Amino acid sequence: MPTEPPRRGIYLLPNLFTTACLFSGFYAILAAMAGRYEAAAMAIFIAMIMDGLDGRVARLTHTQTAFGAEYDSLSDMVSFGLAPALVTYVWALSGTGKAGWLAAFVYTAGAALRLARFNTQIGVADKRWFQGLPSPSAAAVLAAGVWLGVVHGLSGPTLAWPAVVVTLLVGLLMVSNFRYHSFKEIDLRGRVSFVATILTMLIFSLIFLEPPLMLFAGFGVYALSGPVFTLVRLRQRRLERRKRKRA
């Protein structure tokens, strides 16, 4: 009896979201080159939404494949590695000479290394935590910073050196060993308290009230949470060691 040949092809639905993520990153680069920095920053956030949907759709529809995982990783490299670095470079970093392109390269290399490390740790690392700042969150810090500057009428050259510092910082945080909460244990289909519903409503209201400011502040706090959490844990361990020695 002849055996059925293996099926070839890819699942369309989850890869449509991945393609939308890739297109958003590509569009962000084009918009920045045309001087449309606000549109470029918004495109990066749209890419984040698409990136969050493709994985969830694949899990819900049971269409997870090795091809989809590789495609998603390459799309992330463009949308959260190249696009934020180039948008920030064109907007502010280009006026600082070598320091600007060095900061942009460190960020891009950090995103590539972060994605490579994440891919090798799938199925091994604790799902509750990320090792190093996730590349979408790093991209959000840069994109929100550009968006915030444009909305408040601040030109890129006036913020060139602060942009260099922030770009280097988030680039290095991506390849650090700091632990970041992944929030993957949150069950979106489960029941929540009435207070949680009110808090969610307030968060969305604040974001829509001043999107660039709230997004920059929110992702900035998340970026700093890794070092702060690590320092708190180290202090707790030292206190525990002192107590054991005294006992």
Task: Describe what you observe in this structure.
The chain has 247 residues and is mostly helical. It has a single domain, classed as Up-down Bundle (Four Helix Bundle (Hemerythrin (Met), subunit A)). 72% of the residues lie in helices and 2% in strands. Strands 1-2 form a two-stranded antiparallel ribbon. The protein is globular. The mean pLDDT is 87.
Core attributes:
mainly alpha, Four Helix Bundle (Hemerythrin (Met), subunit A)
Low-pLDDT sequence parts: none
- Average pLDDT number: 87
Please give the count of helices: 8
Domain module tally = 1
* Gross morphology: globular
Distance between the termini: 74 Å
The CATH topology turns out to be Four Helix Bundle (Hemerythrin (Met), subunit A)
Order of helices and strands: HHHHEHHEHH
CATH superfamily: CDP-alcohol phosphotransferase transmembrane (TM) domain
Radius of gyration: 20 Å
Beta content comes to under 5%
* Biggest beta-sheet profile: 2 strands, antiparallel
What is the correct CATH architecture? Up-down Bundle
For the record, what CATH class applies? Mainly Alpha
Extended strand count = 2
* Portion of residues within helices: over 70%
Provide the spatial order of strands within the biggest beta sheet: 1-2
Structural class: mainly alpha
Short description:
The protein is built from eight helices and two strands, in the order ααααβααβαα.
How would you summarize the topology of this molecule?
Elements: H1 12-33, H2 37-60, H3 66-91, H4 98-120, E1 129-131, H5 135-151, H6 160-174, E2 179-181, H7 194-209, H8 211-246
Antiparallel strand pairs: 1-2
